[in-house]
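call fold(seq) -> C-alpha coordinates
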Amino acid sequence: MEGQEQARSIALRWVEALNTGELGSFDEIVAEDVLDHSGFSRIHGRGRDGIKRLVAELRRVMPDWSSQIDEIVIRGDRVTIRHTGSGTPPPPFRGRADRPAPPWTPRKVRLQLVSTVRIDQGRIVEHWAKGNP
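ret:
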Protein backbone atom coordinates (compact mmCIF):
# COMPACT_ATOMS: atom_id res chain seq x y z
CA MET A 1 0.00 0.00 0.00
CA GLU A 2 1.70 3.21 -1.11
CA GLY A 3 0.98 6.80 -1.90
CA GLN A 4 -2.59 8.00 -1.87
CA GLU A 5 -4.05 4.66 -0.78
CA GLN A 6 -1.72 4.54 2.25
CA ALA A 7 -2.48 8.18 3.09
CA ARG A 8 -6.23 7.53 2.89
CA SER A 9 -5.89 4.45 5.11
CA ILE A 10 -3.97 6.43 7.75
CA ALA A 11 -6.57 9.22 7.66
CA LEU A 12 -9.39 6.70 8.15
CA ARG A 13 -7.54 5.11 11.07
CA TRP A 14 -7.02 8.59 12.60
CA VAL A 15 -10.76 9.31 12.63
CA GLU A 16 -11.56 5.77 13.80
CA ALA A 17 -9.19 6.24 16.76
CA LEU A 18 -10.91 9.54 17.63
CA ASN A 19 -14.29 7.78 17.54
CA THR A 20 -13.31 4.71 19.53
CA GLY A 21 -10.73 6.19 21.88
CA GLU A 22 -8.43 3.28 21.03
CA LEU A 23 -5.19 5.02 21.99
CA GLY A 24 -2.97 2.14 20.84
CA SER A 25 -3.86 2.99 17.24
CA PHE A 26 -1.92 6.23 17.56
CA ASP A 27 1.25 4.24 18.32
CA GLU A 28 0.95 2.67 14.87
CA ILE A 29 0.04 5.72 12.76
CA VAL A 30 1.55 8.75 14.55
CA ALA A 31 5.26 9.55 14.88
CA GLU A 32 6.46 9.83 18.46
CA ASP A 33 7.65 13.41 17.90
CA VAL A 34 4.62 14.57 15.86
CA LEU A 35 4.25 18.36 15.69
CA ASP A 36 0.78 19.52 16.67
CA HIS A 37 -0.08 22.95 15.25
CA SER A 38 -3.67 22.97 16.55
CA GLY A 39 -2.79 24.63 19.86
CA PHE A 40 -3.91 21.59 21.87
CA SER A 41 -0.28 20.69 22.64
CA ARG A 42 -0.08 23.68 25.00
CA ILE A 43 -2.66 21.93 27.17
CA HIS A 44 -2.00 18.23 26.67
CA GLY A 45 1.73 18.10 25.96
CA ARG A 46 3.82 17.57 22.90
CA GLY A 47 4.27 14.61 20.60
CA ARG A 48 2.22 11.45 20.24
CA ASP A 49 1.65 11.20 24.00
CA GLY A 50 0.09 14.69 23.99
CA ILE A 51 -2.32 13.67 21.22
CA LYS A 52 -3.20 10.52 23.15
CA ARG A 53 -3.91 12.61 26.29
CA LEU A 54 -6.11 14.93 24.21
CA VAL A 55 -8.15 12.06 22.80
CA ALA A 56 -8.43 10.42 26.23
CA GLU A 57 -9.76 13.71 27.62
CA LEU A 58 -12.23 14.07 24.73
CA ARG A 59 -13.53 10.54 25.37
CA ARG A 60 -13.75 11.16 29.14
CA VAL A 61 -15.66 14.42 28.77
CA MET A 62 -17.85 13.28 25.86
CA PRO A 63 -17.96 9.47 25.82
CA ASP A 64 -20.58 9.54 23.07
CA TRP A 65 -18.29 11.53 20.72
CA SER A 66 -18.63 10.48 17.10
CA SER A 67 -17.18 11.99 13.96
CA GLN A 68 -18.38 11.32 10.42
CA ILE A 69 -16.05 11.93 7.49
CA ASP A 70 -17.48 14.37 4.95
CA GLU A 71 -14.46 14.54 2.62
CA ILE A 72 -10.84 13.44 2.35
CA VAL A 73 -8.50 15.41 0.09
CA ILE A 74 -4.97 14.17 -0.53
CA ARG A 75 -2.33 16.55 -1.90
CA GLY A 76 1.16 15.14 -1.87
CA ASP A 77 2.09 14.20 1.70
CA ARG A 78 -0.85 16.11 3.26
CA VAL A 79 -4.29 14.72 3.91
CA THR A 80 -7.17 17.03 4.78
CA ILE A 81 -10.13 15.39 6.50
CA ARG A 82 -13.35 17.38 6.70
CA HIS A 83 -15.58 15.77 9.29
CA THR A 84 -18.62 16.51 11.41
CA GLY A 85 -18.35 15.54 15.05
CA SER A 86 -20.97 15.45 17.76
CA GLY A 87 -21.17 14.56 21.41
CA THR A 88 -22.86 15.52 24.65
CA PRO A 89 -20.77 17.80 26.86
CA PRO A 90 -20.98 17.45 30.66
CA PRO A 91 -23.14 19.80 32.72
CA PRO A 92 -21.57 23.18 33.43
CA PHE A 93 -19.61 23.47 36.67
CA ARG A 94 -21.63 25.04 39.46
CA GLY A 95 -19.15 26.28 42.06
CA ARG A 96 -21.53 27.43 44.79
CA ALA A 97 -22.64 25.01 47.46
CA ASP A 98 -25.09 27.54 48.95
CA ARG A 99 -27.22 27.70 45.80
CA PRO A 100 -28.80 24.73 44.01
CA ALA A 101 -27.79 24.32 40.39
CA PRO A 102 -30.49 25.15 37.85
CA PRO A 103 -31.89 22.23 35.88
CA TRP A 104 -29.67 21.07 33.06
CA THR A 105 -30.78 19.20 29.97
CA PRO A 106 -28.03 17.36 28.08
CA ARG A 107 -27.81 18.43 24.44
CA LYS A 108 -25.46 17.18 21.77
CA VAL A 109 -23.16 19.71 20.19
CA ARG A 110 -22.15 19.50 16.53
CA LEU A 111 -18.83 20.72 15.20
CA GLN A 112 -17.60 21.04 11.65
CA LEU A 113 -13.94 20.05 11.81
CA VAL A 114 -11.02 20.19 9.44
CA SER A 115 -8.02 18.05 10.37
CA THR A 116 -4.92 18.10 8.20
CA VAL A 117 -2.08 15.67 8.70
CA ARG A 118 1.28 15.39 7.00
CA ILE A 119 2.49 11.86 6.48
CA ASP A 120 6.08 10.74 6.17
CA GLN A 121 7.22 7.11 5.98
CA GLY A 122 3.75 5.82 6.85
CA ARG A 123 3.25 7.95 9.97
CA ILE A 124 1.61 11.26 10.80
CA VAL A 125 4.41 13.74 11.51
CA GLU A 126 2.38 16.97 11.67
CA HIS A 127 -1.22 17.80 12.59
CA TRP A 128 -3.40 20.89 12.16
CA ALA A 129 -7.03 21.19 13.27
CA LYS A 130 -9.76 23.79 13.36
CA GLY A 131 -13.46 23.64 14.01
CA ASN A 132 -16.65 25.65 13.85
CA PRO A 133 -19.65 25.04 16.11
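The two ends are 36 Å apart (CA to CA).
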